[in-house]
Design brief:
about 240 residues, single chain, alpha+beta
Length: about 240
């Protein structure tokens, strides 16, 4: 009788263990406790032009850019007489000890760590112009999508100093982005008809951003510039 009772207790214990296993939180649709401290995977976002723009703010759709391009004044380049980068004060203070450069570095990078003076001391950046990756902020320049000298000869020569400062530090429109120093210096003050990003997949975003900045600030384009922008917008998926 003792042996039968012992066998019965063992059997009941085994059945209980099976029931507990079958009713685990995962099987019941309940989230198990996180043990690796990893954040949840972000929800997927639809692809297309907005996704391709990355961190660059205010980039219009290709259709909007084509409409804006059609409305731009076409004129030859103006004179460079009187031009100086000092007439476009940058980088302006943006609060919390951060200037415009540091704001763009933080926006365009991943895992960016800053010191007490708001300087980026570590992080990871991908230069969209040439598809190169960097882990040191000193290897990066902040590019003005529409270069200061280009703006000067297409209308900014007649602006006030305050408006030129706003243009040079614009964080709202697609005017500033962190790229490799090599690509930025290769571009210089050239327009799209003279220089395009080496990474052709970025041409669509580049053209949309360029047109948007020129439209926002009512700057003119040359005939060659307009023709090239039209071709670059032709690389967009829609």
């Amino acid at each position: 009788m003792g042996r039968q009772l012992s066998w019965l207790k063992s059997g009941l214990a085994a059945v209980a263990a099976l029931v507990l296993t079958a009713c685990s939180p995962t099987e019941q649709g309940l989230a198990p406790e996180a043990t690796d401290n990893k954040p949840s995977a972000p929800a997927s976002t639809p692809g297309g032009e907005a996704a391709e723009s990355g961190t660059l703010p205010g980039v219009p759709t290709a259709e909007q850019a084509r409409t804006e391009l059609a409305g731009l004044t076409v004129a030859p380049h103006g004179s460079m007489a009187g031009y100086s980068r000092a007439k476009f004060p940058h980088w302006a203070q943006q609060g919390e000890k951060c200037d415009t450069r540091e704001k763009v570095l933080a926006r365009d990078g991943t895992g960016v760590q800053r010191d007490e003076e708001c300087r980026a001391v570590s992080g990871r950046w991908v230069s969209v112009y040439d598809d190169k990756t960097f882990t040191s902020a000193s290897d990066l320049d902040i590019d003005h999508m529409v270069p200061l000298a280009n703006a000067w000869r297409s209308g900014a020569a007649g602006w006030t100093q305050e408006k030129r400062k706003a243009f040079a530090n614009d964080l709202t429109h697609p005017q500033l982005l962190a790229v490799s120093a090599a690509s930025n210096r290769s571009k210089g003050d050239q327009g799209p008809d003279e220089w395009q990003p080496p990474s052709k997949p970025y041409w669509c975003t580049y053209a949309r951003a360029w047109v948007s900045v020129k439209a926002t600030y009512e700057l003119s384009v040359t005939e060659a510039e307009k023709n090239t922008l039209t071709e670059m917008l032709g690389t967009c998926s829609s």
